[in-house]
Amino acid sequence: MLSTRFIALVVASIAAMAIATPDTDGGIIKACQGPNWTGQCDTVGFTADVCFRLPDRQVNNLDSVEIPGGWICTFYRQVPGGFDCDDGQPQSATILAPGSSNLYLQRFNDAAKSFKCFRRCW
What we know:
Keywords: Signal. This protein is of the alpha+beta class. It has 2 helices and 8 strands, in the order ααββββββββ.
């Protein structure tokens, strides 16, 4: 017979998994060095409202990015003396899901260093 403590632990674990799903707390972007998701690509996990640096080979080489549905991500340039995801810097590009097949259209190809994503609420 299962103990009450064991059953309580299982129930608590299931509840915790239901609360902390990647869909609500974060997701994964696909970052590529070529337009239309070509060239070398990386998948980068993120947590909502947390700054993440792109993989080294994508820094200043990002040309297309895929963003999961329901998310909006802001990408930031590497600015001398600036910090990653510095919201005060004017050199950023905000991209809505599903992403951008060519960051040249946003005048932001080969420019990104870091990014931060938020859940869209509209």
